[in-house]
Design goal:
mainly alpha
Length: about 70
């Protein structure tokens, strides 16, 4: 099972977004994205919703509840 960080990274790269570009879309710094992708921190609920919209995926997929 993939971690949420790995899913974020996979989805970001599949959309051809850099960490900086994703951070700008979310109003964050690239450091935040890096922490998520390295499983050092988890995104807050508001960012989970935004990530799902940006990546066009379900929250269940992002959270690893479905494949």
């Amino acid at each position: 099972m993939k971690s949420i960080g790995q899913i974020i990274k996979d989805e970001r790269t599949s959309k051809n977004l850099s960490q900086t570009e994703l951070a700008k879309l979310l109003g964050l710094t690239y450091d935040s994205i890096s922490l998520w992708e390295n499983d050092k921190r988890l995104p807050d609920t508001q960012y989970i919703i935004q990530l799902c919209k940006i990546f066009e995926i379900s929250a269940d997929y992002l959270l690893g509840l479905e494949e």
